[in-house]
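Figure caption, in words: inputs first, then the predicted bound structure.
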Amino acid sequence: MNQLRVLIIEDSEDSVLLLLRELRKGGYEPVYQQVQTEETMRTTLQEEAWDLILSDHEMPFFSAPAALAVFQESGMDIPFIIVSGAIGEELAVAAMKAGANDFIMKKNIARLIPAVQRELRDAENRRKRRKAEVESKERYREIQILSGRILHAYEEERSRLARELHDEIGQALTVISLDLQYLQVKLASEESFLQEKIKSSMQLLEQTLDYVRRQIVDLRPPSLDKIGLIEVVREMARELGSRADLTIDIQEKGFSRRLPADIETALYRCIQEALTNTVRHASASKVAIEMLKNSNEVSADIQDNGKGFDPGHLKFNSKGVGLAGIRERVKLLGGKLKINAAPGRGVRISILIPLSDHAE
Ligand SMILES: Nc1ncnc2c1ncn2[C@@H]1O[C@H](COP(=O)(O)OP(=O)(O)OP(=O)(O)O)[C@@H](O)[C@H]1O
Ligand SMILES: [Mg+2]
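Bound structure (magnesium ion present):
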């Protein structure tokens, strides 16, 4: 037997017995309480857990509409079924509109069990759905927190690597370069073979130093902390533009004051990825960057005139993480991202990030 906790709102003992008999016939073992007033309904609802409410429509001190109001106030989601002697169609419709799950005439009491079974099943499904929704929201929140931490760790690690490259390898190469210069001066000029060797070593060293410097800037521009976003973007554009034969135009407005560090880093990384993508994939000749800041928000718009791509196709076929990284960074800052792309019509990436009051 299926135990069922039923709250019965009813003044007639005979009706209560009728309901209990029907429930037992339907295979339930009812554990019930009978209430006849608003006050007792309120306390009984709070004190115990219920599976089902069965309510008469009209009673001397209470009514189904009033009981429905109390029930809805409680925020519970269990079936509420009206079982009444005779109510007009209008009242029945009004009761359903007010939130009753079903109404049953006593003369059709055989309908009770199927209605109870159906409503219990529906309520259980709603409960499961709510639970799944809560769980998926929690999981999403956890993923958000995790991706925030990963991005933070990524920046930390890149800073550490940049520092190490600068302090260890950069310094060592500089010392070697000075030693070579010393040797060059000390060597007798007639030892031309050795002179040549030293000269080519110094050239290689210069190239390596240049490479290390570029790697350091690429890992984390030391100047992002010092000179700020706009100047760093200009530097990056100069460097990339000359390397890739690309005209990069930068327009900016409103950046008289620095932005919070996390926003500067995020925007820098997004623009860096957008420009790298243009160089790698677009075969473009021009890029326009527009950056605007006001007291409420900061925006960056990066548009190239290259071959573009089909976003629909990309959704399922890209192994890249660059655009996903942009999306993640923007989302973490509560911002909005638009990627407009079509084959043959270039790519435009628009980022909008809200600024809280303290950012001004
Ligand atoms: N500016 C662009 N012009 C043309 N195609 C682009 C452009 N930007 C992105 N794409 C297309 O979108 C794809 C996905 O870009 P995404 O940055 O996510 O990955 P990726 O650049 O291929 O690899 P990763 O960034 O992970 O090194 C690219 O492979 C390319 O096909
Ligand atoms: Mg990329």
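The mean pLDDT is 91.
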